[in-house]
């Protein structure tokens, strides 16, 4: 059964960087689209980025454009989210999810604080 496991979160100062990874137990090429979402307690979840394994197209929400980059490593069956110039408002639980059926991982916590 396909599963996603996120990693790479942590505590970082404003302006810092983190690289999140979403590892799939099956072939990443079979997933077609994979989204990165973030959730803050008390707020609705937010779609951060999306990656298509069909045509390598990407999507970013406006608040992260120019700072975050999504990419895949087919050999490692992962989709990564490189996050640069992090801001306190980026603090959230980040998780990857397949939009077609909602399958998601447990998430990894990102905290941006001085």
List keywords for this structure.
114 residues, mainly beta, 6-stranded mixed sheet, 4-stranded antiparallel sheet, globular
Task: Spell out the blueprint of helices and strands.
Elements: E1 4-7, E2 10-12, E3 18-24, E4 33-39, E5 46-52, E6 58-60, E7 68-73, E8 78-83, E9 92-97, E10 108-112
Task: Write structural notes for this entry.
There is one protein chain. By secondary structure, this protein is mainly β. Helix content is 0%, strand content 47%. It has no helices and 10 strands. It has strands at residues 4-7, 10-12, 18-24, 33-39, 46-52, 58-60, 68-73, 78-83, 92-97, 108-112. The strands form 2 sheets. A 6-stranded mixed sheet has the order 2-10-9-4-5-6, with no helix packed on it. It has a 4-stranded antiparallel sheet with strand order 1-3-8-7, with no helix packed on it. Strand 5 (46-52) and strand 6 (58-60) form a beta hairpin. The protein starts with a strand and ends with a strand. The mean pLDDT is 93.
């Amino acid at each position: 059964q396909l599963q996603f496991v996120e990693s790479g979160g942590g505590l970082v100062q404003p302006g810092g960087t983190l690289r999140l990874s979403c590892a799939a137990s099956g072939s990443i090429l079979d997933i077609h689209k994979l989204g990165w979402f973030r959730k803050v307690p008390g707020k609705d979840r937010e779609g951060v980025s999306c990656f298509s394994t069909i045509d390598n197209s990407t999507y970013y929400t406006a608040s992260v454009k120019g700072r975050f980059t999504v990419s895949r490593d087919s050999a490692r069956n992962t989709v990564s989210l490189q996050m640069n110039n992090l801001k306190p408002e980026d603090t959230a639980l980040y998780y990857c999810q397949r939009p077609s059926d909602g399958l998601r991982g447990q998430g990894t916590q990102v905290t941006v604080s001085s």
